[in-house]
Structure to design on (230 residues):
């Protein structure tokens, strides 16, 4: 799966606790993304990164933060988890966007997070 | 604003029959369009994309999609369905204005009946 590893694959946590999800890539791709997948919503972008220490918000960024200190790692943090953040989280990478924005995304296998 | 609609939550087709999974989009200007497939407990896999040129795009596993600008549609098709094609299919769109987001539809579950 395009050299993308997400950890953990499953996590159950309690409301109010911090949670960090990790995405690791071996492709040396510049762009990395975090999406969440929920029934009836498809996939929605949380945050993305266009380089080391360069990140930006997506459409559902409230309650989430990210960090990218190395090209290969992109971390997603829920500072204080809520039940509405129960979801399946996917990391994705793309080689370049450039001026044509036609690069497909390659996805990891996801992290299933349950907030009780 | 960009958006994608997949009007059918579920599509059932008999093995060997042609299949169509529908997608319509809304975007400013000319779109980049994508189809992805998701198997259980896996991430999305890229199937095909439309950038420019020929309206009929061929992709992986025998799938193709037809871009129709007047109808703002990008339907996914396959001439002869296989049981192994049963999965969740997502259409996605990105505009050409510089936005970095890929907007996904809500997905269509395809079931191919033996």
């Amino acid at each position: 799966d395009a050299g993308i590893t997400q950890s953990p694959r499953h996590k159950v946590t309690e409301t109010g606790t911090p949670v960090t999800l990790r995405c690791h890539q071996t492709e040396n791709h510049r762009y990395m993304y975090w999406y969440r997948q929920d029934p009836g919503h498809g996939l929605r972008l949380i945050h993305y990164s266009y380089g080391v220490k360069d990140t930006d918000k997506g459409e559902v960024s409230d309650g989430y933060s990210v960090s990218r200190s190395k090209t290969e790692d992109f971390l997603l943090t829920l500072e204080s988890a809520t039940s509405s953040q129960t979801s399946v989280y996917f990391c994705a990478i793309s080689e370049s966007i450039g001026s044509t924005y036609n690069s497909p995304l390659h996805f990891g296998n996801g992290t299933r997070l349950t907030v009780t | 604003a960009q958006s994608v609609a997949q009007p059918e939550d579920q599509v059932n087709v008999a093995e060997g029959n042609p299949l169509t999974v529908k997608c319509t989009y809304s975007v400013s200007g000319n779109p980049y369009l994508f189809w992805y497939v998701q198997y259980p407990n896996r991430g999305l896999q890229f199937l095909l994309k439309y950038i420019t040129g020929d309206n009929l795009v061929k992709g992986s596993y025998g799938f193709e999609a037809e871009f129709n600008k007047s109808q703002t549609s990008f339907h996914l098709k396959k001439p002869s369905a296989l049981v192994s094609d049963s999965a969740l299919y997502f259409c996605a769109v990105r505009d050409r204005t510089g936005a970095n987001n890929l907007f996904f539809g809500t997905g269509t579950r395809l079931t191919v009946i033996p």
About this structure: The two ends of chain A are 30 Å apart (CA to CA). Chain A is about 0% helix and 55% strand. The interface with chain B takes residues 1, 4, 31, 40-45, 48, 50, 56, 58-59, 90, 92, 97, 100-102, 104-110 of chain A (CB under 8 Å). The longest strand of chain A covers residues 42-51.
